[in-house]
Amino acid sequence: MDMKEFFDRLSVDRSNWRDVFSACLGKMMCVQNACAERVVRNEDWNVDLERGVILFDTREYPIQFIGSESKSSGTWLWGWENINQFPDSLIRLAGDTRKCGEVWQLEALTVDEFELNDIFNGHNLSIVACGLADGYCYYRCPHEVGAFFVGISDVPDEVFAPVDLPRFVSVVTQCIEQFALDHRIFAEAFLLWNRTPYEADGDALIAHFAQDLRIEFERADDDLRIASIATL
């Protein structure tokens, strides 16, 4: 089951940025943590855009150019705008993300350039671009006047491996503290990606790890928010 199938199962409003971001976040936090451990490994990076690869030490991986942040203008520019005349093969992921945005009428994925803020920035946009796709982590490549973001493929399978109970709880706690989310969509999409069986129990989810986990929600205005998370 891929992310778009998760959206169908969870009735995600594809025109709502928060819903889409919430559905992608758990997966990509785990992927990015594993990417740091197994791909980056605290090594210096070098990008060869002509060849479409990134190197960490001597390890080489194919990339997709997602987009760039500019310090001077304080804006994000999607890769499909292609001001650098990259080959189409290098901006395919950005183009696929735009196609999703056009079908879903999701403005953040279809407007080529806009101001950066806490919600719309290179990290969050890359989380969605790579979260909607299969087989990508991403990397921020800083330079003197900003940074560009690349999706990385052909990485070890372990980068996309499910996480255990302690790691799951750690990621959930970190995400709900750091981001504005739909907590129910976030938790269920994370469990689906993690291939963890679960069922609903009123305003709670019971997830079947090696030890069962209960995620309790409470109503806040029109939202369900995580009130507690504990093993059974």
From TrEMBL:
It comes from the Bacteria. It holds the Pfam family DUF6882. This is Uncharacterized protein. It comes from Centipeda periodontii DSM 2778. The lineage of its organism: Bacteria, Bacillati, Bacillota, Negativicutes, Selenomonadales.
